[in-house]
């Protein structure tokens, strides 16, 4: 994102130096030139040596990551084997099946290419075909992602500026997360039932006993207690090692899904409480933001972000800022779509970005070339990567915020980034007419395009797919604008937030009732804590004194002074199982409240 604009500006500079002209060439003069400059007129400096080596290292390391290393890591992370050797074996088997089919198809294409086009397939040609195939696959993903994000990014910013819409969407998400949480709890109950049968069949002397203990130790303390309270079944046959591996794999996945849904549910509740507070403070004549549930904040935040500043930001300035950003991103999206549709046209130049770079080159303004290129690439990267973060394939691949994403999903997102980045850079170079394999009017090309490779061997790819497939982005943008994908998913049973749908309205009403119930429950808990705190303060006079005359601090009631935090409850539920047994028992004993001495002296 930051190095490619430097390569672009250096390419424009080299073009001027090699042609030995006093003024830079625009697209018209470059198209009329038919001969390249002599080699002696092109001075070699340090960027000419740095850029090629840099792009080789960056490109081929990312390709090795996305096609070789990360798939192995991904299969290793989801393997349910109990040893490192077993996990590596499972990962190798999974990738052998996956890449064996790939190699078979590629072999057929190479044989067809050798016999039909008459091209000699040496090592360099095969390497160019491999890199070009990877870039073509990345271009296919890029256009699909941009077709969604170029519309959704400005629309989300505009919708987030509307308080009622955002609050309604939170109610909808609360209802869906409540359903997901209930399904995760049912899955855990099924796994506990299977574990109960396994523990009853495998005794302490069984060869598979240590594997069963490994699975049981993955459970949080509360689930282990729940498992121990179940009645053992009668005459259960002992499991096999393969069935234990599958059970181990299901247990890891189910525990992660349960923890993730619990955390997302609590975080969405906090966001909903905040939005309800914003709606209430907007109607308040007092310009000081009031929270329903007071939370402790750092001293710096209390100084720099007092209630007065918070009120003006949340109730007045934030909506206009989001609307301004929505307009700016909307204009950028229109420019990207127009340039994607028209970048193949050589004369006249219709691509907006190509004209901007050409105008900056006429004035020798290399800083403007770097700045404008960086901003445009940043926006394209943001649109593509933000869509990657929103992709959800059932519960197999799901990127969740606040550290709730599993290893499999994180590695999958890294693979997507490695595959998308080279294609995005090549696509941007095509938009500004610096890809000589698409627009042949430029005499010199960037070092990036020299290293990346192109599918010139297959004519249908070089002259058809790479040029005309990006035009599909306008159809995808129209489909996203009319929410055709969301409506189709709703018809298939995957309920989406569609405003004019009856089921959406029912889920919003259900979410509103859930928020009211959770708010009443939290208020009762905080009122109970407040009463206990007041009661302990009234009884402070009856606390015993030490030898120095100071009152002895009783730690039993200090626990009630802490504000209620649902996230701490989740951390305690899912974090204690990883601690040693001794520390777990100490925490259990610490939870027992010891009454202070002299409690009933006034009776």
Structural overview:
The structure is a single chain. The protein is mostly helical. Helix content is 69%, strand content 1%. It contains 21 helices and two strands. It has helices at 3-19, 27-32, 46-78, 84-116, 123-160, 163-201, 209-217, 221-228, 241-282, 299-304, 307-342, 352-362, 366-390, 407-431, 447-452, 459-468, 473-481, 484-491, 502-538, 566-575, 581-590; strands at 392-393, 397-398. It has a two-stranded antiparallel ribbon with strand order 1-2. The longest helix is centred in the middle third of the chain and has 42 residues, at 241-282. It is globular and about 90 Å long. One of its GO terms (cellular component) is membrane. It is found in: Membrane.
């Amino acid at each position: 994102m930051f190095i490619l604009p430097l390569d672009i500006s250096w390419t424009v500079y080299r073009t001027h130096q090699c042609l030995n002209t006093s003024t830079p060439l625009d697209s018209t003069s470059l198209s009329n030139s038919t001969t390249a400059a002599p080699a002696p007129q092109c001075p070699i400096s340090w960027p000419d040596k740095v850029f090629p080596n840099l792009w080789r290292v960056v490109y081929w390391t990312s390709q090795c990551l996305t096609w070789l290393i990360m798939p192995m890591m991904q299969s290793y992370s989801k393997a349910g084997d109990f040893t490192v050797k077993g996990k590596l074996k499972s990962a190798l088997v999974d990738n052998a099946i996956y890449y064996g089919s790939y190699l078979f198809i590629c072999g057929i294409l190479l044989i067809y290419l050798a016999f039909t086009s008459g091209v000699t397939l040496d090592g360099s040609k095969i390497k160019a075909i491999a890199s070009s195939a990877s870039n073509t696959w990345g271009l296919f993903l890029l256009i699909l992602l941009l077709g969604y994000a170029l519309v959704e990014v400005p629309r989300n910013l505009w919708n987030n500026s509307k308080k009622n819409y955002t609050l309604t969407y939170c109610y909808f998400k609360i209802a869906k997360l409540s359903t997901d949480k209930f399904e995760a709890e049912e899955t855990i109950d099924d796994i506990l039932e299977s574990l109960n049968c396994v523990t009853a069949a495998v005794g302490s002397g069984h060869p598979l006993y240590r594997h069963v203990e490994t699975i049981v130790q993955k459970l949080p303390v509360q689930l282990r207690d729940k498992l121990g309270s179940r009645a053992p079944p009668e005459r259960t046959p002992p499991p096999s090692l393969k069935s234990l591996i599958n059970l181990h794999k299901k247990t890891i996945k189910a525990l992660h899904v349960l923890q993730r849904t619990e955390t997302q549910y609590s975080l969405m509740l906090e966001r909903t409480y905040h939005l309800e507070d914003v709606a209430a403070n907007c109607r308040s004549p007092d310009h000081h933001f009031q929270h329903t549930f007071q939370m402790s904040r750092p001293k710096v935040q209390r100084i720099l972000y007092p209630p007065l500043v918070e009120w003006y930001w949340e109730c007045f300035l934030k909506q206009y800022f989001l609307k301004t950003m929505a307009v700016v991103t909307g204009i950028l999206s229109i420019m990207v779509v127009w340039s994607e549709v028209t970048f193949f046209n050589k004369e006249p130049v219709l691509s907006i970005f190509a004209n901007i770079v050409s105008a900056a080159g006429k004035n020798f303004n290399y800083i403007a070339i770097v700045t404008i290129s960086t901003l445009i690439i940043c926006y394209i990267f943001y649109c593509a990567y933000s869509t990657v973060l929103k992709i959800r394939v059932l519960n197999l691949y799901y990127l969740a915020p606040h550290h709730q994403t599993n290893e499999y999903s994180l590695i999958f997102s890294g693979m997507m980034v490695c595959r998308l980045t080279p294609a995005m850079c090549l696509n941007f170079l095509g938009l500004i007419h610096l890809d000589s394999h698409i627009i042949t009017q430029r005499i010199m090309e960037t070092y990036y395009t020299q290293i990346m490779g192109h599918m010139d061997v297959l004519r249908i790819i070089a002259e058809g797919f790479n040029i005309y497939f990006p035009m599909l982005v306008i159809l995808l943008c129209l489909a996203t604008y009319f929410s055709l994908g969301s409506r189709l998913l709703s018809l298939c049973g995957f309920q989406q937030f569609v405003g004019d749908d009856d089921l959406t309205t029912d889920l919003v009403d259900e979410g509103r009732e859930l928020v009211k119930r959770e708010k009443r429950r939290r208020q009762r808990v905080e009122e109970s804590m407040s009463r206990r705190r007041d009661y302990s303060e009234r009884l402070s006079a009856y606390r015993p004194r030490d030898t120095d005359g100071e009152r002895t601090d009783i730690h039993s009631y200090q626990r009630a002074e802490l504000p209620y935090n649902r996230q701490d409850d989740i951390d305690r539920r899912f974090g204690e199982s990883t601690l040693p047994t001794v520390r777990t028992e100490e925490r259990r004993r610490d939870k027992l409240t010891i009454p202070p001495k002299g409690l009933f002296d006034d009776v």
